[in-house]
Amino acid sequence: MSIEPAEMAENEIGKIIVDRAVRLHMELGPGLLETVYEVILVHMLQDAGLHVVRQIPIPIQFRGIQFDEGFRADVMVNDKVLLELKSVECVSNAHKKQVLTYLKLTGKKLGYLLNFGESMMKNGITRVLNGQLKEF
Fold first, then answer.
1. Is the pLDDT of residue 65 over 90?
2. Exposure string (b/e) for 81-94, b if CB count within 10 Å is 16 or more?
3. Of 67, 69, 100, 94, nearest to 82 (Cα)?
4. All domains of the chain, ordered by start, with CATH?
5. Secondary element (H or E) of residue 60
6. In terms of C-beta density within 10 A (0-12 exposed, 13-18 middle, 19 or more buried), how is residue 25 classed?
7. Buried-exposed string 39-73: b where 16+ CB fall within 10 A, e elsewhere
8. pTM for the complete prediction?
9. What is the widest separation between alpha-carbon atoms in the chain?
């Protein structure tokens, strides 16, 4: 019996995301524009039966004022897991903090920083839990 996408836990979704990201990187290799990886990964995740939305506005509330144009997350999967994609030689702590900030602002538990610029995708995956960072 299969699990409906809406009922999937964050970790189940994460396994599918990591699997598809590794496959994509193996097929295309590193060094393309971030947008290329984003469009294709979204398609691959949708083919896996997940609900995926690109370029999600993340509003900021400060002293009773809401700024809708504050940030944009690259991808949201099943309204549970946030993805930030990069295609850089090396991610910085600022990139990791960006994902953590997005998680805090959205109230989501799990996010991934996926750097398609790495020569091996396993070195480009950072799993981020709301409140902590963990290298994959």
1. no
2. bbbbbbbeeebeee
3. 100
4. 5-135 (3.40.1350)
5. strand 52-62
6. buried
7. eebbebbeeeebebeeebebeeeeeeeeeeeebeb
8. 0.88
9. 48
